[in-house]
Amino acid sequence: MAKKKEVSVEEKLRALYDLQLIDSRIDEITNVSGELPLEVEDLEDEVAGLNTRLSNFAEDVSNLETDINNKKLLIEESKTLMKKYDEQQKKVRNNREFDSLSKEVEYQELEIQLAEKRIGEYTVKIAQKNEIIAATKGKLAKQNEHLSHKKAELDDILKETEKEQKMLTEKSAEFSAAIDEHLLSAYKRIRNKVRNGLAVVSIERGASGGSFFTIPPQVQVEIATRKKITIDEYSGRILVDSELAREEKEKIDSLFS
Question: Which of 98, 139, 168, 209 sits a CA distance of 20 to 30 A from 115?
Answer without folding.
Answer: 98
